[in-house]
Structure prediction request, 140 residues.
Amino acid sequence: MLEYDTSLLEKRCRWIIENLGDKLKWKWDSRFDTILAEFNIKETDTIKEKLSHQMDIEWNPGNTGSAPELIHIIIDYFGGLNPDQQLFTSDPDIDGILLCAWWPWGNGKTISIRLAVFADSLSDEENDELTRIFRGWFGV
Prediction:
């Protein structure tokens, strides 16, 4: 049993599900242990605008130099950020971060987003449980 207050993360995720559910189909990405959705680049402005309601910071290759260590760890986990990629996060100074990796495809027509949660104060096993709960919110 996870002894961690997931209410803020759940509130953020449920908002995203409710406000993007008509535009995105969620699935599990076992490669990165994230929730994955893909959409047409024409939806970029709408998706970004909706995500901005739950994400506090947009990280890109130009502003990660001063990022907290946790952000560097997340970026490294995803293999770095290419010039057209971004990482959106909730406040990294609050334990329990919601993140979204934004990856445009090379075809210029599709974008993938990958969402995950992570709490720095939790052990690996506890973060695994948090991820299981997170998957439940998205039904994957």
The helical segments are 7-20, 44-51, 69-77, 124-138. Residues 27-138 form one domain. The chain has a mean pLDDT of 95.
